[in-house]
Recover the amino acids of this structure.
């Protein structure tokens, strides 16, 4: 007895076009500000996905907190 649907077809049987898609850029969303960022397809989005501006602000806030604690 086999499991699954008996009416499934392989993608080769569906006569789908076999053209390649070339992406110029890939978008990802910053978790902090919600802004969309674009990167080249061969690059990876940062983990966690935080844009450079939000990253710089977080570092500046952390440094300011450390300086305030140190005094």
């Amino acid at each position: 007895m086999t499991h699954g649907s008996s009416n499934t077809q392989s993608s080769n049987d569906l006569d789908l076009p076999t053209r390649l898609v070339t992406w110029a850029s890939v978008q990802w969303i910053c978790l902090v500000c919600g802004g969309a960022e674009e990167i080249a397809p061969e690059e990876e989005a940062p983990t966690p996905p935080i844009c450079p501006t939000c990253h710089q602000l977080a570092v500046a806030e952390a440094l300011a907190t450390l300086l305030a604690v140190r005094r």
User: Anything to note?
Assistant: The beta strands are 26-29, 36-39.
